[in-house]
TrEMBL record:
It is found in: Cell membrane. This is Phosphate regulon sensor protein PhoR. The keyword Transport applies. It comes from Noviherbaspirillum aridicola. Member of the two-component regulatory system PhoR/PhoB involved in the phosphate regulon genes expression. PhoR may function as a membrane-associated protein kinase that phosphorylates PhoB in response to environmental signals. Its EC number is 2.7.13.3. One of its GO terms (molecular function) is kinase activity. The lineage of its organism: Bacteria, Pseudomonadati, Pseudomonadota, Betaproteobacteria, Burkholderiales. The chain holds residues 172 to 433 of 433 of the full protein. Residues 41-256 form the Histidine kinase domain. It catalyses: ATP + protein L-histidine = ADP + protein N-phospho-L-histidine. Keywords: ATP-binding, Cell membrane, Kinase, Membrane, Nucleotide-binding, Phosphate transport, Phosphoprotein, Transferase, Transmembrane, Transmembrane helix, Transport, Two-component regulatory system.
Length: 262
């Protein structure tokens, strides 16, 4: 009981007896703390780009005669920061929606082959020829939300691009392992130290903040992946060795395999 916070109430009862009511507030305090941290982190993430944009706007107002090249450079920097804020707000809205009980999962048949081919194309486009990206897709269609899985798988694939140096390779694999469908993204990139693995799916947790930001990261990608998988009864397995690479595998229950009978 040492780490728990108990609220104890003594309520008078008949015949001079009393009732002792205890309530464990540990869990509600933990949730409250998480909510506070989330708001603090999100505000901090939004403040930095806002400061940059406001700074350039002030320059634009106070120096109306700036030459065109400088002005264009400032506009480009402002656009970049604006995009960063937009990505962040969109990821926050996605997370909120995924957690909301008002949006229960409505499973449909997910056409895996076209979905994975689309993700392959998008991953290759993001890499811009800097990596070898391949797809092996032997697995079946499953029941789930195509949109949510597109976003989860796309997040894992784009992370592989962002955390793998040029010249590296990225494999997208959809197969059945011991009766269970599995989507794995295997990269030979920078890898992750063992001390970080258990915290990676926390909101805004990053191993290297500057690398994440440089590559347009919001710090919410894996939190979104985790929630999408949770809604599908799936789990995320992460294996990684620093400087060797990482494997992120989404494992689905056998029952999620789509069959004609439903
Ligand atoms: P971010 O937007 O920062 O990439 P994510 O939630 O997607 O946020 O990932 C959290 C952190 O996990 C990243 O900041 C990065 O440190 C680490 N990470 C995620 N994917 C990989 C990967 N494939 N290789 C190495 N590190 C990764």
């Amino acid at each position: 009981l040492r780490d728990r916070k108990l609220i104890v109430q003594i309520i008078p009862f008949e015949n001079r007896r009393q009732i002792l009511v205890t309530h464990d507030a540990t869990e509600s305090e933990r949730i409250e703390r998480m909510r506070r941290d989330f708001i603090a982190n999100a505000s901090h993430e939004l403040r930095t780009p806002l400061t940059v944009i406001n700074g350039f706007l002030e320059i634009a107002l106070s120096q109306p005669d700036l030459n065109v090249q400088t002005r264009m450079a400032h506009l480009r920097l402002m656009t970049e920061q604006g995009r960063r804020m937009q990505n962040l707000v969109e990821d926050m809205l996605t997370l909120t929606r995924l957690e909301s009980i008002e949006y229960p999962l409505r499973p449909e048949r997910v056409p895996m082959r076209p979905l994975l081919e689309q993700i392959l194309q998008e991953t290759q486009a993001l890499s811009g020829g800097r990596h070898t990206v391949t797809l092996e897709a032997d697995g079946p269609d499953i029941k789930g939300s195509t949109d949510e899985l597109r976003s989860a798988f796309g997040n894992l694939a784009s992370n592989a691009v962002r955390y793998t140096p040029d010249g590296g390779s990225i494999r997208l694999v959809w197969r059945v392992v011991e009766g269970k469908p599995e989507f794995a993204v295997v990269d030979n990139g920078i890898g992750i130290g063992p001390e970080h693995l258990s915290r990676l799916t926390e909101r805004f947790y990053r191993v290297d903040k500057s690398r994440s930001r440089e590559t347009q990261g919001t710090g919410l990608g894996l939190a979104i992946v985790k929630h999408v998988l949770l809604r599908h009864g799936a789990t995320l397995a992460i294996a990684s060795v620093p400087d060797k690479g990482s494997t992120f595998a989404a494992r689905f229950p056998a029952a999620s395999i789509y069959s004609q009978e439903g």
